Amino acid sequence: MFFCAQKRNKSLEKGKCEMMKLKYLFDNRDLAKMLVGNWNYDESSLEMFQYYRISSNAIYPFQNEGKTKLLRFAPASEKCKDSILAELEFINYLRGNQYPALKIVLSNNSKELVTANTPWGAYYATVFDRVSGVPMGETNMDNRIMFEYGKALGKLHKLSSDFTPKNKRWSYEDVLSWIKNILEKFQNQELALEEVSLLQECFSKLPKSNENFGLVHYDFELDNVFYDEKTHTCNVIDFDDAMYQWYIADIEQALDSIKDEIEETRYECAKDSFINGYRSQYAVTDEMLSLQPIFRRFANLYGYTRILRSVEEKWENEPEWLVKLRVKLDNSTKRRSAYFPCKL
Known about the structure:
The chain is built from twelve helices and eleven strands. It is an alpha+beta fold.
């Protein structure tokens, strides 16, 4: 489950969009040790810090009384405290309704979220129990497992449709406004800005109801869903990117991740199993499924903009892993922008 981010971070190798600025991707175990001090931990388990990963957050594993926990932290400059609180509220709601989301571990001061002033600046930190099972992509991804994968998403959306939050996450409209603001800071982004306008116009015409629109996970991909073979269930992690969107956005993200990892000849069967699993818990019309290309366009634009923001700063004598990462991310932006701005 764990690996050194600079050596083998699959998310970054694929150019996935959920990423902090590059300057925050460096291993900082002194910072991790300072932050984990807000929780109980086994001193000897800090050797597990070598298996860190960093993308949208830094994740450092450790143990308390022999049980594996995950310390997650990010600089306050990269995160919104209210959004994190909203994320934790949604996780608690899901768990309160017997949904297999990861469990939050309270700090020594009984806090779900710790705000810490450190020599490296202000940071937000949380700790979660490690979930059971293995990432979905490490299974054989047969039709039975794909059914459970879809079933887990359908149940998530069913619960989301009944959720009334105290702390609200941002919406696709907020995301598009953020994208526009970021793009306007860069030169030669006319095509991407036109893509923003096209999506805004398209979304304004889509039917929106409590049945098809709500709080989505937005990163319900293979590496964020763990399959437990003993119980034949899925355990879901990483609600950091959740937003208000049409539920089809989650379906598109999940199916796209399947397509990346499965043989082309098996994809249609896997897709059908996933949709059947989803529909066993929550309804989705064929009409909504036909809108997947629109939400792929949104995902491409969002990912493109996040990468653009992340790689803006450059330094002399960058380490080899960072130089290679820049190449991968540059290729990712080229792929994502290939369709700017086709008509929808």
